Amino acid sequence: MVHLGQYIPRTSIIHGLDPRVKLAAAVVLSIVILKGDGTPCWVTAFLIVLVPASRLNLGHLRTAFRPMLFFLGLLFFLHLMFTPGTPIPPFPPWRVTITYEGLTTGAFVIWQFLLLILSASILTMTTSPGELISGIERVLRPLKAVGVPSHDLATMISMAMRFVPTLLDELDRIREAQTARGACFKNGPIFRRMKSTASLLMPLILSTVRRADALAIAMESRGYSRGARTYMRELRMGRKDYLAVLVMVCVIGMEVVGRYAL
Amino acid sequence: MIRVENLSYTYDGEETPVLREITTEIPQGIHLGVIGPNGCGKTTFVRHFNGLLPTPRGEVQVDGLSTKNPSDLYRIRQLVGMVFQNPDHQIVGMTVEEDVAFGPGNLRLPPKEIRQRVREALLQVGLEAYADKAPHSLSNGEKQLVCIAGVLAMKPRYLVLDEPTAYLDPSGRKMVLDVVKKLHVEGITIIHITHHMDEIADADRILVMDRGRIILSEKPEVVFSQVALLKEVGLDVPEVTELMWRLRSMGNPVRTDVLTMEEACRELNACLSRAKPQSSQRKTII
What are the chain A neighbours of B90 within 8 Å (beta carbons)? Predict the structure, then answer.
């Protein structure tokens, strides 16, 4: 099963890029997309080209967009209803007025959001969590001087992600144990169900605290201490990464020139 | 060599000491078993070996480095690797490979060296095909092997295993024990706490602990022949030894220092043929 924005292991040009380049690209693209005083045509074209370049298909994109559909629909609806302007002729008899302006701003906002989701999805679908974390860590490393513990942050994020499935397993086990003792989670009065849910929380918290304790000892025995450490893969910018930066600069440049100079 | 001298330890806020003036030496290259009833201080004892606990009274030295000395602690943690009961409480990486790289990363080794060590360590435990797998997709036995690989990547001289098979099913247990045996042959000193007596039947020496003291430090044959003493402190002997011991107490002239199934068969056959040398149809068992 593929989740929203989950990493899709492939070999592609985009997969092979330095995560820092991809992170920077996603951030810059988001700014350009949201700076909403013009239609982001170049960015749209660029992102559409990136999809086959990342060897992703429409199925992957569907998993990225589907959870957002309701939200996007609502957004469109609100813009349609509440934007003042010239009414669209067929609708005036009703109490609500739908305007041309509403239609265009609605469509524009949806377009912006689709682009944002697309760029974020391309980032997370082509970059493994490990790479992403080491990218963030490397970007934050210069901030160490002002007290940002980049190594510890990276360790924390990766451990949090490593324990998500473990905690879900544990939750399942606790739920079974509590069901066996008469708790009910599926039906019954809402108050009773809430109480049952509380009976999941306490054991889960307790076992997590106990695990954290054991984990701290195990990490210490493996020589972990706060501060500098090294990694199996140190990121290094190659020729293709610089090329990608160049392409990005071109796309953003075109976009800016297209919007303001023409 | 790990030297322990007059080591006593009391946990904060408790009255009774967990360890009472322990003095012992663990030479390099041996396979040492540590047994004792619950709460006898086994775990506390071995946690001192890589400085996980402070030593206000007594001293622990690993190859001449004292755990009292904070600047030696780094080196000691590299020399003494620890593997604990529950593999899920030890794995920190999102992939097998990343987890094995955690220790060498803490030692601040260069990336190339880390990759080399990760590859070697996974090869040593036979998980080279699992490098990119997520830990939660593995069986408990495999997870415990990942933990062992994570320690091996630091190139330790001593491997301390604190009931490494407690959470494993029989096949996982066998996987781990086979690897431990192999590592011992390769020259790593093994210090193995366990409740399963069969796991340390072929150890070089066994420490029996009770109420914070070492009450016996002998070869397995000697330790397991002290059935009465072991039972008194609440320990079992290997099942075959127990069998021989019961046969003996029923009046059969069998040896009781037998630890393995093969030995037991041989001894029983010998005993039977001694009993009826003139019988025409001598039966052998198994």
Answer: 214-215, 218
Chain A hits for B50, Cβ within 8 Å: 221
Which DSSP category does A88 fall into? Answer: P
| Crossing angle for the helix pair B261-275 and B239-249, to the nearest 10 degrees | 20
SS3 B70: helix
CA distance B117 to chain A (A): 10
Tens of pLDDT, residues B159-181:
999 999 999 999 999 999 999 99
Across-strand partners of B66?
Answer: B61
The Cβ of residue A45 has, within 10 Å, a number of other Cβ atoms equal to 13
Closest partner residue to A218 among B78, B84, B110, by Cβ? Answer: B84
Residues from chain B that touch A221, judged by Cβ atoms under 8 A, are 50, 52, 77, 81-82
Nearest C-alpha in A relative to B49: A221
Please write the tens of the pLDDT for every residue from A179-237: 888 877 777 788 878 888 888 888 999 999 999 999 999 999 999 987 778 888 888 89
* CA gap B74, B161 in Å, rounded: 19
The model's pTM: 0.82
**Do residues B146 and B132 make contact, with C-beta atoms less than 8 angstroms apart?**
no
Residues 6+ apart with CB under 8 A from B15: none
d(CA A85, CA B1): 86
Q: Nearest chain A Cα to B133, which residue?
A: A162
Tokens of A134: 């080491």
Range list for CATH 3.40.50.300 in chain B:
2-222
Q: What is the spatial distance between Cα B39 and Cα B29, in angstroms, rounded to a whole number?
A: 28
The answer to whether residue B110 neighbours chain A at the CB level (below 8 Å) is: yes
User: Rounded CA gap, A96 and A99, in Å?
Assistant: 10
Cα gap A74→A95, rounded to integer Å: 19
What is the C-alpha to C-alpha distance for residues B148 and B122, in angstroms, rounded to an integer? 9
The whole-angstrom separation of Cα A41 and Cα A258 is 9
How far apart (Å, rounded) are the C-alpha atoms in residues B243 and B265? 11
pLDDT tens per residue, range B12-39: 888 899 999 999 999 999 999 999 998 8
Domain B2-222: what homologous superfamily? P-loop containing nucleotide triphosphate hydrolases (3.40.50.300)
Beta bridge partners of A87: A99
Q: Which residues of B108-144 are buried (b: 16+ CB within 10 A; e: fewer)?
A: ebebeebbebbeebbebbebeebeeebbbebebbbbb
- State the complex-level ipTM: 0.85
Query: With contact defined as beta carbons under 8 Å apart, do B155 and B117 qualify?
Result: yes
Option in A162, A225, A234 nearest B92 (CB): A162
- DSSP-H helix ranges across chain A: 19-34, 41-53, 58-65, 69-82, 100-126, 129-140, 150-180, 190-221, 239-256
- CA-nearest of B79, B30, B13, B70 to B203 is B30
Q: Is B157 within 8 Å of B79 (Cβ atoms)?
A: yes
